[in-house]
Amino acid sequence: MLRVEGLSKRFGGIVAAYGVNLEVHPGEILGVIGPNGAGKSTLLNLLSGLLRPDAGRIEFLGEEITQAPPEVRTWKGLGRAFQIVQPFPEMSVWENLMVGALYGKPGTGLKQAQRVVEEVIALTGLAPKAQTPAGELTLLEDKRLELARALATRPKLLLLDEVMAGLRPAEALEAVELIRRIRASGVTVVFIEHLMPVVQALADRVVVMDYGQVIALGHYDEVAANPRVREAYLGRAR
Amino acid sequence: MIAAAILLLALLLPSLPLGEWRAFLLDTAQFAFLTSALALAWDLLARSGQLSLAHGAFFGLGAYAAALSAPALGTLPALLAGGLVAALASFLLGLATLRLHGMYFAIATLAFSEVMRTLVLKAQFTGGSIGLPVQPAFSGAFPLGSYYLAVAVLALSAGVSLLLSRGRWHYAMAATRQGEAVARVLGVPVVRVKLLTFGLSAFLGGLVGGVYAMKTLFLSPYDAFGLGRAVEALVVPIFGGLYTTSGPLLGGLIIVGLETWLRLRIGEGYLVIYGLVLILAILFLPRGLVGLFRKGVGRA
Amino acid sequence: MKKLWVVLVTLLAGLSLAQTTLRVGVLLPISTVAGKAALNGVQLGAEQVNASGKVRMELVVVDDGNAPATAVPALTKLMTVDRVDIVIGGLASGVTFALSGPVKQYQPLFLCIGAASSVVEQAFSDYGRFFHYHPWDYHNVAAALEFFKYLYDNGARRVAILYEDGPFGSAGIQTYRQQLERQGYTVQAEPFKSGSGSFTAILTRLKAFRPDILYWIGYDVDALPIAAQTRQVGLEPKLIYGAPPAWPVGFEKNSLSNDIAGMTAWLPSVANAESRRFVTLYRRKFGEVTDEYMAPMGYVIALSLGRAAEAAGSSDKDRIAAELAKVQMDTPFGPLSFKPSDTGRTRYQGFNQSIWLQFQYLEGSRRPVFPPNRAARPLRFPGNY
Amino acid sequence: MELLLQTLINGVLAAGIYALVASGLALAVGVVGIVNFAHGEFTMLGAFIAYLLFVGSGLDPLVSLGLAALVLFLVGSLTYYGLIRPVLGAPELNQMLLTFGLSVALQNLALLLFGANTRVVSPPYQGSTIHLLGLSFGVVPFASFVLSVVLLGGLYWFLGRTRLGLAVRAVAQNRLAPGLLGIEKERIYLLAFGLSAALAGVAGVMLSVILYASPTVGFAYTLKAFAIIVMAGLGNLGGVVPAAVALALAEALVSTYLPGGGGWVEAVFFLVIFATLTWRSWRAA
Lengths: 238, 300, 385, 285
Fold this sequence. Notes:
Order of helices and strands of chain D: HHHHEEHHHHHH
Strand content of chain D: under 5%
Order of helices and strands of chain B: HHHHHEHHHHEHHHH
Strand order of the largest sheet of chain B: 1-2
Distance between the termini of chain B: 18 Å
Radius of gyration of chain B: 19 Å
Oligomer: heterotetramer
Largest sheet of chain D: 2 strands, antiparallel
Structural class of chain D: mainly alpha
Shape of chain B: globular
Low-confidence stretches of chain B: 296-300
Strand order of the largest sheet of chain D: 1-2
Number of strands of chain D: 2
Largest sheet of chain B: 2 strands, antiparallel
Structural class of chain B: mainly alpha
Number of domains of chain D: 1
Strand content of chain B: under 5%
Low-confidence stretches of chain D: none
Number of helices of chain D: 10
Helix content of chain B: over 70%
Number of strands of chain B: 2
Shape of chain D: globular
Number of helices of chain B: 13
């Protein structure tokens, strides 16, 4: 569904991604893990088009999108939720979702967008807060909004950047449930996560990154047993 | 509502029994309409997160283009030409400044205005620093011609502003303003939104300049491209209420009205009071004049 | 009893006949130095007229804001609300040009105090009630050129012109260049932005040209920076000659002003009876002496209007205009009378190049040095900068 | 060669004034995050203080420097308490309108009190020049340049080396959550805004010697100062002098080498800014 070949990006002297190869299969949940600064967020930014790669190519649903701007990728069905939630603060929850619903797929009318928003709101449990200004939400509600907004664009593949950071364990469990439901509705999911239990519970496959490179790929248990991964996580004082 | 009422009043003003104040009121109102229209144009651009200091330049470009083409084209096509020239300039400016935000954007647009002014100052066909005499609207055939042109430009600006404050465009502009990167990832065609609002806003600014030229009958680079005009275009919407239609509309009328009234009342030093009023307005009406009417929470 | 009434009524009628009441609109940029001075002058003049008892002048003062967008409605208000028939105003050229439309619409008697640009002359060329007191820009050029001819005769050969790039500085620049070259000068002209305060770079450029005369056309804000930086660059011209509309307050007390020459229409030290009278009256009313020639200009306009109204014995604008056209009077600037302008475009032109005089800052005050018949001191040439 | 050297000197010296006016502005924007449109009017107050003291009691403007700084520090503090503090949380545009209102009010108050006249001070060294190897340096512009470098250097030292300065920087970098060393954000803002006004006062005194004192004296240089701090990068005090030098050099080169270049100075100044800002924004992508 998504194919990445030799993707590289450097900032000045720092290599944030180097020769990343990756394939995401339809319907799976893929976890991306790695120490801080391993290049996970850079990878997501490259995939969603906020950064342009120095080398390599990205293919989505059989089309090359390496140089496509972010909005075009969204139109093709590549959705993205941010780690640091960035709701449009002067809009209500409803309006925030309307942006995603209206523009996520070209040619969406107002009526249709409203229906999409209603669905998404129901799915994410934001209904009671629909008219609240986004600037006044709690962290959990913010995270839900972030997820809901990405869903409103009706993605085929959803990129999630640490959507559970800062949540309490009970809340994280709720979120895990939500992501499962999203997958059940036919959306492929790629997510970055720090909480290992969450990764273990959710991911069909896991990618481990370090120093901008993919150092391991496979089922959670396989990866966890990989000596290079253990070294990356434990061996160095970071 | 407020907008419609003001426009209706503007249309009917010449036929109201105003007595001896009629001519003065019509003249003052005409300049106030132009101020409001320019403010509406500025606000349009601000909605997409672009704080322009170039509206003096759009005004000036429109004014000069209209003035220069009026003898050949006639009044209405000349005004249109003025708007188009301003829009074209804004398109080029917009392309260059796509990635600038906040103060950086503001200063870049300020720089653009200053360069434009110098070009007009140095050019021969613009009359240079001496200035350019302008034909009256419709060659002076209708005494109220330029008044109704001002009303028309105001109505057009208000109409565009109203149209873009609802529906798809409202969401696209507000999203671009409040988080450009996020908006792109949500599928908002940010580049198109920015350039289009830039072009529309500059087009309206250019129209305002054209009508102004046909009223004052004389243009000089320091007047037409004045920084004061760019600042006024920014002050009025903040005073009236940002990202609304009635805000800049009402704001322009009240600011010009207040300034005129103070000048007639106090004379020397009236601008001290004017400055104090602006300060008090910000301290006590943080959401502008329209904040008085709308008690609801933060609408985008 | 009846008789007494008749007498009273006749008396009153006689009085009202003898005293003509004029409502006069005054439209000036009162927040600028020149505008304020002009207003003071007009008020002083009106007071004098009223004191004579034959004519009563009521002034309706409005600020023109020094901007077309303010001036046009302000004129409209004077004409329709205050219902004046006579307007004194038109100081800045751009504003005056913008007023040409409404003036033609409302047809007042328009007594123009400034607006030297010949663009304005064109705008009012078909308007019969336009009395322009101030010389036109070509008069200014002619006056300066006379002075340059004198300097040429005294050995000056090279002129560097610094002119501000607004309408004030740029208007006559081509004429200056041609005329100076015709007189035999070598000319180099450079524009600058008024108020920028940085002249060293341009002056450094001029250094290679080795000018005898540094002639600058700008504003009061440029006077001190040019004087200081000419020295700092080591340009050493034989004369710094400036033509701003006004000079900085207290500039004569600054040692850098020494030997700088300039052109003005009037100085408080001008030795004619009318000028002395004006200075005395002005000091009595405002408690100070003014350097601004716009003050006596306003004063002269008010006085001449009073005289014309007295002669007309009526407040009718056309009868006053007819009398004004015939006025012959002495003023602080010298004799005033109206003739068609040199270009023939307007019919009533008051002063011409003969009112301009050249002065030099010498020992802490401005002294007339040219033309010779009005000079109080000989010109110090070469000066020391 | 000599012409080129002299031109470079002219440019560098002119940069001194720019940097002086810009330094206070940079501090207010960098630390408090306030775009202060009234900065030019603070400068104007400094110029008038120098003028009044000179005319009233013959005080040399150099002596007035300290006094002007002190008075303006008070003015700045009062402004902070009365006007800035209430709008710290408000949108940037509201803050701009507020300081714009203050600017209009102050400028016209000065107009009312002193009239629109241009006024000059006359210290004996005003036109003095140092001649060296066939090159000339105006004493006052040179002093302004040194002053601006010293003041900015001092500020830099203060922010980088002192406890209080480090606290200021901490506050500047994270406006929402200071809670640092018990020093209140409030007091730091007050200090920074006061200092910013004091710097404006110092610049104003120098302007009164180089240019003049009038209600509008602050305007011309403040506009350029805004452009300079933006080119330097908001909050980057170290970039102010280089940006000022680059721009002033461009101006000097154009006016010296281009016939009629004096009329293009403004355009070149702003063209350089425009090109730098846009080029930087595209390169960063």
